[in-house]
Design brief:
The complex is a heterodimer of chains A (175) and B (141). Chain A has one domain: CheA-289, Domain 4 (OB fold (Dihydrolipoamide Acetyltransferase, E2P), Beta Barrel), CATH 2.40.50. Chain A has 175 residues and is mainly β. Chain A is elongated, with a radius of gyration of 19 Å. Chain A has a five-stranded mixed beta sheet with strand order 8-1-2-10-9. Chain A is 14% helix and 40% strand. Chain A has two helices and ten strands. Chain B is α+β, with helices and mostly antiparallel strands and 141 residues long. Chain B is built from three helices and ten strands, in the order ββββαββββαββα. Chain B has a six-stranded mixed beta sheet with strand order 7-1-2-10-9-8. In chain B, strand 1 and strand 2 form a beta hairpin. Chain B is globular and about 40 Å long. About 4% of the residues of chain B have low confidence. Classes of the chains: A mainly beta (175), B alpha+beta (141). At the A-B interface, strand 4, strand 5 and helix 2 of A face helix 2, strand 9 and strand 10 of B. Chain B: It comes from Marinospirillum alkaliphilum DSM 21637. Chain B: This is CheW-like domain-containing protein. Chain A: It holds the Pfam family CheW. Chain A: This is Purine-binding chemotaxis protein CheW.
Chain lengths: 175, 141
């Protein structure tokens, strides 16, 4: 510590400079969201669009419970699914996925696309790839096929998901 | 280019379903006239839409033509319906293929396409698939 305010200011500035991301470092765009009281992210290229959760969704009879229905996106009928069962997440506490902050991510992967209901969109950010940690060995078995890494985002533990793997598993009847 | 499709629509437990009208040969009331054809209630074909609701007795029937049924005259059969029935001319622009994820996971194989018409969703059914299901139910009984 120094008693010179100028010195202190310069030290702070130096610290800030060290915190600045190296612009040459490769970055990845992430769409970060809450689902079932946990924090997840998809790679930005997997998400075409984010729609308000209040958009009308029409129930389709004769579908599994994880299908919420279909919605009209500028004339196209798009499916809307929930990932709670696949990821073994809680839907308790009064259907949190229906709360006002909910969003629908239009995701694409495994050669197809669908809406994905999430509880809340947190942010869309560019993150240096170096900040993404590999998935730990301790990851639960049911998440292992879909997790590509972990990230600390503003103090939140965010799990990165592979949408291709999720759609492929969902097509095989999981979730 | 097809600009519209004539569809016989019917309601079932707050949902709307549709059949291409060219497969529907006749329509009648169960109470007045029942042709000598196998009648299968729609509620017996569709997986439980809302399990807390009791299946309603059919009030009307549609005589459907399908080669696969294998029972009754000329492969025709009667689909029993408990809700409203109507004939619509659906603009082709309202009709969409079933999204691939739903096509793969559907629990009710006759679901073929979807139509959003005047704010309501109409689930369009394949008459051949429906007949195949009906024939199994008829044989099981």
């Amino acid at each position: 510590m120094t008693d010179s305010q100028l010195q202190q200011l310069l030290e702070e500035r130096q610290q800030q400079d060290q915190d600045i991301v190296d612009v040459d470092e490769p970055v990845i765009k992430l769409v970060i969201f809450d689902l079932g009281q946990r924090h997840f992210a998809f790679a930005g290229h997997s998400v075409q669009e984010v729609l308000p959760g209040s958009e009308p969704v029409h129930l389709v009879p004769g579908m599994p419970a994880s299908v919420e229905g279909v919605m009209n996106v500028r004339g196209d009928i798009v499916s809307v699914i929930r990932l709670h069962d696949l990821l073994q997440l809680s839907t308790a506490a009064g259907m949190p996925d229906k709360k006002a902050t909910a969003s629908i991510l239009l995701g694409q992967g495994a050669g197809m696309h669908s809406g994905l209901r999430v509880d809340q969109l947190l942010d869309v950010v560019d993150v240096p790839e170096s900040q993404i940690q590999p998935a730990p060995e301790s990851l639960p078995d049911h998440l292992r096929p879909y997790v590509t890494g972990l990230l600390d985002f503003d103090g939140l533990a965010v799990t990165l998901l592979d949408l291709d793997a999720i759609f492929a598993a969902w097509l095989r009847g999981k979730g | 280019m097809i600009s519209s499709l004539a569809v016989v629509v019917f309601s079932h437990q707050q949902h709307w379903f549709g059949l291409e009208s060219s497969f529907v040969r006749a329509r009648g009331l169960c109470s007045l006239h029942r042709r000598n054809l196998p009648l299968v209630p729609f509620s017996a074909l569709l997986p439980e839409v809302e399990s807390d609701k009791k299946p309603l007795e059919p009030k009307e029937w549609l005589q459907l033509s399908a080669a696969k049924i294998g029972t009754g005259a000329g492969g025709d059969w009667l689909l029993g319906l408990a809700g409203e029935v109507d004939l619509l001319e659906l603009p082709a622009s309202c009709i969409s293929i079933l999204p691939p994820l739903l096509h793969e996971r559907r629990l009710f194989s006759p679901i073929q396409a979807l139509a959003l018409y005047q704010g309501r969703l109409i689930t369009l059914l394949n008459c051949h698939e429906l007949a195949a299901m009906a024939s199994k139910i008829d044989l099981d009984q």
